What does this fold into?
Amino acid sequence: MSFKLKHIFNVAAFLVLFENQFLSISTPVNNNVQQIVLVYVDKYNNMTLSDYKLLLAYHSESGINDSFFNTFLFLGQFSNTNESYEGYGKGSSYTSWLWWLTEKIFGKNGQMELLNSAAEEVSKQITLSEVKIIVMIPRPFTNLTLEERYENVKTYVTKTIQLFNEGNYSKLKLIGFYWMCETVPSQDYELVRGVSRLVHLLGLKFYWIPYFGAEGVDKWQELGFDYVMLQPNFAFSNVDTNRFSTVNEIAKKLNTSVEMELATFVYNPKVTWQESFVLYMYYSSLYNWQDFPILSYFNGNQFSQNLFKNYRAYYDLVYMHVKGKDLKNNKIVVEGYNAYMTKVTISNLFQMLILFSLFAVVVFMLFARMKLKAPTQQIQNK
It folds into this structure.
């Protein structure tokens, strides 16, 4: 029996099981997502109750006075045995996925319980709508057959929904799954399509945030994703601000959205993290990225654990961006943008000066060589 035909029968049986055991999840959800915050939970990362409260509600100097992020994407990079959930190269094991679900996300004192408790506390102070939840799907081992890889994902999805329903979270709603690998090589096309069909048959949505230049981006609709948010990767690559216009053109052409990479660390040698931060804000306002029906933000751990405590003004900027404020004329953004452009101008002038100096040296050497040749020639003529 072919994989496609076998997949249809498997999904049919799978849905009957879910109708009987988890009826509440089989109905379609109203997926009006606007702002998604990425929350990393794995061997090296955790969040606390207070961290979640800082992301659910905006904390001004006088206290809580407004809602903040309405959607949380739970994902992780490394398992307890250091397997990569992104799965570049060989992928990761179902055993490592199960550890993440049972030891980190669900269960007593798990991250989902902490988020729900935080939402309950915040709801006592402000009106807070139901918090939407998206959960990652790691990339399975590549040395397995297509059927085995799909079965691993199906079992994982089943377990995720089971654990979520058992949690009886009063303030949370599971709305979809996220494909963790940030590229889709051709060997994964059929797998991703199969996972997409499964997710959709469960009434949920399928999300993806590929890196710049990733495989499969131009085929995202064929692969079955509902929402794609492109990474500009300005903060993490040795590129200039032309990257923003390039990403904007691609996003508009392919009908995707973008990710706001608001990290407190950068790998781009041209900028500090503060400069990178405000440049994302500036170009987002310039290109009206806030008009996209969906945006994702990297990353929530730093917003609550670092920005709020140490760089309060940048925490405020994230809040203003989430609320759709035009930040092109914001004082911090303008000063940061101007400082960066001044630095670029000085760097360009310095490079021009070096080139001019090299040119002058070459001309001088050529002229000196010509003068040395002239007397020699005169002596030979005599």
